[in-house]
Amino acid sequence: MKRSTVNHTIEIAKEVFAAVGLKLPPFAYWNVHDWENKGPEADEIRRCMLGWDVTDFGQGDFATIGRTLFTLRNGSKRWFSGKDYAEKLILDPENQRPPRHYHRHKMEDIINRGGGNILVQLWKATPDNQCSEANFPIQVDGITRTISAGEIMRLSPGESLCIPPGTVHQFWAEEGTGICIDGKRYTVSGEVSRVCDDYEDNCWLEPCSRFINFEEDEPRRHYLVHEYPEAL
Q1: How confident is the model at residue 232 (pLDDT cuts 50, 70, 90)?
Q2: CA 149: distance to chain centroid?
Q3: Burial profile 150-189: b = 16 or more Cβ within 10 angstroms, e = fewer
Q4: Quick count: other Cβ atoms within 10 Å of Cβ 17?
Q5: Whole-Å CA distances, 160 to 9, 33, 108, 208
Q6: Cα(226)–Cα(202) distance, rounded to whole angstroms?
């Protein structure tokens, strides 16, 4: 994956987030030169991995398997921050998705923050890390319903879905329903959850490299969450 793709998708994310009325904090706009003057006062951003996060999960097909996220707040099991919650914004180009996965401990709400529709496919995980064929209950905006294994649920703007630990999931923007920019459509999803630990809490059902290296075909504009320099 090229650094130029990272730079481009972050600029698209800023534009789409603004189009649905979402404001980002100041550190979303810090560039690599701004970070040259940041000392330990910014340690929570570094250590809790707040900020921009772009990945193709090592698949080499960012348009199909990929994510552009901005982590607004998070705690850390490695560094005490006093926070036991997290919040993210996710750019959803139509039909782009992450690999199927579940979390051992994290419970999360996936929220459609605006644009088009979000499609969420769900299964319960088996003890051997596969998708169960059993039906199971799920909550949509506080209403409990029973769904079948692999059922796809549609969230329109404002709707949310609670995903408990041990629930395999994959979600993406429904084709043809989002905000159109340069001929491509985008939706924004949000995640509100327990602390997000991308190193130890994710169980992937498909090949995955969560944090990747990039081909540096142009200068980096923003540090990603796994690239921050140490404090001065």
Answers
A1: low
A2: 23
A3: eeebebebeebbbbeebbbbbbbbbeebbbeeeeebbbbb
A4: 21
A5: 25, 38, 10, 26
A6: 16
Q: How confident is the model at residue 77 (pLDDT cuts 50, 70, 90)?
A: confident
Closest to 1 measured CA to CA, from 56, 44, 48, 69: 56
Tell me how many helices (H) and strands (E) the chain has: 2, 14
- Fold category of 3-204 in CATH: Jelly Rolls (2.60.120)
Read off the pTM: 0.95
Residue 230 Cα distances to 30, 37, 165, 226, angstroms: 15, 11, 33, 11
pLDDT higher than threshold 80 for residue 142: yes
- Domain range summary for the chain, segments of one domain joined by +: 3-204
- Residue listed under structure tokens 């649905």: 20
The answer to whether 75 touches 138, Cβ cutoff 8 Å, is no
